Amino acid sequence: MWFVMSRKCSDQFYYAVRIGRKPGIYRGWYGEYGAKKQITGIRNYDYSTGYLKTSSWEDADVYMRAHELFSVESDFTIKKATPFNEDMSVVHGETRVAAKETPAQPPAAPATENAFFPPSAPSVPYHRDEKLESFLHAYYPDRRFTDDQKAAIQALSGAHLLYAIPGSGKTAVLTARAGWMIYCGIPAENILIMTFGKKAAEHMADVFRERFPSFSVPFFCTIHSFCYRIIRQAEAEGLIKKYRLIVDEEDDPVPEAMDDEAVNAWIVDESPDEVPSGRTKREDKKKGNRYANPRSPIYLLEKILTRLEYCKKQSEARTFAEQAATVIGCLKNRRMTDEEIRRLSPIDMGADEPVSIWSVYEAYQKELTEHQPPEMDFDDMLIHALEVLDNPNMQAFWQRKYPYVCVDEAQDTSRLQHAIVQKLHRTGDSLFMVGDDDQSIYAFRGAMPEDMLTFDRRYEDAAVHRMGVNFRSDQQIVLSGDGLIQRNKARAKKTMEAFSKQPGEIRIIDISAARQGQFLLDQARRFCKKQEGEENPESLAILYRNNVSALLPLAYFFKNDVPFVGNKVFDVLTLLYSRTAINILAFLRFVLEPDSFQAYSSAYPVWNHYHGLFLNRKTAVENLRKQMGEENSGGPILPKLQALLRSLGEMDKARHIGEIWTILQRIQAEDKPDFAIMAMLKELEYNQNGSMKQKNVQLLVMALIQIASLYDSISSFVDAMLALRAKRKWDEHNADKQPVVTLSTMHSAKGQEYDHVIIIDAVKDLMPGDPSKPLPFWHAFWQDHEEEERRLFYVAVTRARHDLRIVVNGLNSNGQQAPSPFIHEMLRDNPNIQVENLTAYAAHDALEEQIEEAMGIPYFAVRRGKTPGIHREYEKAGVEGYSCPVYRKCTTEREAQRFLNKAVSCPVPETETAPDLPLPVEKALLRLFSVQQLKELDANRLKKIRQKTGYLFSKEAIAAKAVDYAACAPEYALIYLPVNLHKVWQPLIELLRDERLPLLDEFKYRDGSHPIRILEMGAGPGTATIGLLSFYAKIAEANPSLEIHLEYLPIEYERVFRPIFEALTAALLSTLPANLHICMKPMQISDAFAFLHTCQEDSFDLILESNMLNHNEHVESRLLDGLLHDMNRTLVYSGKVIAIEPADKETAAFLVQLAGLAKESCEFSVMEPKSESAACDVSGIRLYQEAVACGLRHPLEKDCHYFHYTVLTKKQEVSP
């Protein structure tokens, strides 16, 4: 910048903070993110060892690295230090908070450097073994193993960890290793192979039998079924009391671990009165009712949440019970103590209030232990198994029984399960764990990558293997996946290479959310048609992060008869049983049957808060039923309710019911289901329902409206939804046809592979999520959560063999529906990724905007400040007190995006010197003296001008207010205007940079038809006028798409300045850019203060004052207070007052007094007056240099013109 501000010397030291609230390296002691705020106030803070003050970043870095970067608090708990960025800012969540002072430049670390863990031990090499070679040749004639795979197969003693990247052939290695052990004479009954899930165990056993038909089969099982055996063995020996296992349907243990009695106890409860009439619980289970067992964990938690009053009704507690079950399972799998659980903060699960985890956990465990017989859930079963293994005799028994233990998917093994495995291993026996820390995606189940990364510290005989060749995916997919995961810090050091020589293809599909369903349908149809009749058809999978994302493609496929299979489609269909979906379908049913009392009684809560109606059930249902029974007449229900309310004297409520009936009749006439739902949301004000604030509810409603748009009538949509909802346990549709499309969550897709993969809803709001929201307790830092989400996205990417498509909703948008940052990471790493912007589905865009308007949930578009971007919540937008041009409250995301795209470039000169006068203004100024250059003036004229200017600027004349401007107006303009012209630019630039400069009152006048109204008090010869207009001209030139309309009202009491003002401004106006439109209305006013008092409210956007309020003008306090009140009254909300005055101590003190009075008396928001003089470097102004050369004025000190200024802002009254 070319403004020179005198500042205090900033703190140039680095502070390396080892402990405290946020360890890291900070630049500076003070400031919002300085070191002082991080370490002061901590009890017993050790200043001798807690931090280091140094002038060198390298010394600070050495100090931090000398400190142990992690401390083991228990067997597996690792405490991490907060990382810092290259500009010395500290990472807090996703947002980088920049340091206040000059950014530091630490050396960049390699992408694969591990921030929290030392590099892993080198991989065990393969020692050629002819016996192994002949074994592999005999049993795997169709396969060639790499040396890394062979090294893993021949490792038969000690504790071994195999890092297996996606597609590296770990299943083949595991089965080959099991066969190799038996081939070497190890009995199969001594080999235990545990996997993560039942299907994986069955699949691996089948693969083993197929490869080795003559071999005995080792024990393939899940860790849960193995622990069930441990407990039953201990019960048989009387070591523990007998527990009864309770499970939900999805917790399905391997059958061989349970006898018939156990299975019956698992499904059937002893209480026959709780069995639904006419059916057994086993039949209910077969029909897919996961809640048939009243002693299931979910059912128990529903009762507990209702009893503790977190939910009003047990029927509403199902979703929250599932979340509570997940949390409790995680607590147990992480081996958290009761004291640790007590300290956990309440969790927002979407219930009526945040849920205290301890109270729910305590009540749940009490239900289990006090029941007769005592009960255990799946996680308790692991805890009891570990307790059994604490018995030395039982531990020795199982160690002798299974000296050869293999654990698959080790990254999904929780801390509790790791402890069980560790109990089974004796030094010298064989433990072989296989997994990939980069695929650890079950933190909510208690599995953390740290548990794998500390393997070599927990086993004396530990060795590490790596398999880094991907045999599944083509090159582009491998390249992008590896680049993506290398950005994680908490990981083992390894890379992924492609075996395939085919390039493969990755495409980013940029398409709006409303078009996504039709796009997926077209892709599925094209795929099925292409693969039809093929002997080995290819596979296509659609992967999603949340279940609600699958509802739209599922409904499209169901309506258009596209064959598909799905993982846990039941969980998707459960959304249709949510309170929101039930209310929507009940309302539509009442639209179809307005004379059905049953339909009415189900639907009336939908409109019950229309205009604050709030009918109680006694009036709305019971009294109405009694009246209808007495009248015994048919016909629509709502007119009868209206009559009832009139009879009760509730005239306003009766009128509202009449309005509702009118809306329903219009919906009936339209007979469009999407129109009906949007009318329900907007016109009946259902969008004011508190549940609509929840993100999942918003996504569900949007999906239902889009599905409704596929149907021609309300009845056809309702029938289709009821038919879809009736398919309770429905994981396939026409699956006997080939090929079929697979629908799966990203989590369920792990371990699978497909030729073609489409990832949908890859948006920032889901991946990695909102950093401002509270983290789940299993993630201590935002980085932990973000890295897990990146691992999940990595898993989804590496499911594809040949073709990967990622669907985003606006690649360049920056709202909550903006693309996931993982997309941009892939684009930066791989320039071969194609971006396809689809316009073929544009017909859906209008529907998308209609849906957003009907939802009634605003978008807050913020251009600048702490939280730029698009936000859905007013609190997250952080715009309290912001001015109109900084943010806008919009009804649709597209409108918000358009507002952001109109952000204005700041025309700051590249040099520090102020630009020269506009040439037309310079020529017009010289024409006042009938010359083209000052050097053309002869000696006599120069002498006369010197006399006038000397008198003009004498302190005595100014103090006596005896300056006769009429006698020297041209000379005043010549001397004063060139050096003062650009001082108005400094406050204008600060306002523009903060997005507070009036450019267009978009908050009130979105069409731009109303101009920016500017009042200048004391225009004089036009110094500030020309400076301000030339600044707006610079803005217009830098932003050609922006149309700026100014209505300029300059007032002046000195008549002699009027012709000079008109001549100079006319010269400037002739050269303005075409997109700057100015309406100039100069006025001759003898008393500017009195004129302002006569102006109406909200008359001006900007008031510019110069040299009228300084101490030389002797303004009385009474007049000053009245002037400020008039300014506040005549300004629009967020309107500005810019006051610019000379640079002297008296004026500086006066401006401080003015700012205090404006803040206290008139409630202005004040840009504090500068305590130092602001300065404008005028050395580049030619007319100033000529005046100095001719002796018409003295040169300024360092060619800088000093001044003071302040900015007052009328407070913006905003509300969410």
* Residue windows where pLDDT falls under 50 for at least 5 positions: 1-10, 41-49, 67-119, 250-292, 1001-1008
- The DSSP helix count reads 47
Q: Care to count the β-strands? A: 37
Question: What percent strand?
Answer: 5-15%
User: What would the principal axes of the Cα set say about the shape?
Assistant: globular
Q: Compute the CA-based radius of gyration.
A: 38 Å
Q: What do the pLDDT scores average to?
A: 77
Largest sheet composition: 9 strands, mixed
Helix content: 40-55%
- The span between the termini is 37 Å
Structural class of the helix and strand makeup?
Answer: alpha/beta
Description:
There is one protein chain. A hairpin with a 2-residue loop joins strand 6 and strand 7. The longest helix is centred in the middle third of the chain and has 20 residues. Helix 26 runs antiparallel to helix 27 and helix 28 packs antiparallel against helix 29. The two termini are 37 Å apart. The strands form 9 sheets. Strands 29, 30, 31, 32, 33, 34, 35, 36 and 37 form a 9-stranded mixed β-sheet that branches. An 8-stranded mixed β-sheet has the order 21-20-22-19-23-24-18-25. Strands 10-9-13-14-8-15 form a 6-stranded parallel β-sheet. It is built from 47 helices and 37 strands. With 1216 residues, it is an alpha/beta fold. The protein is globular.
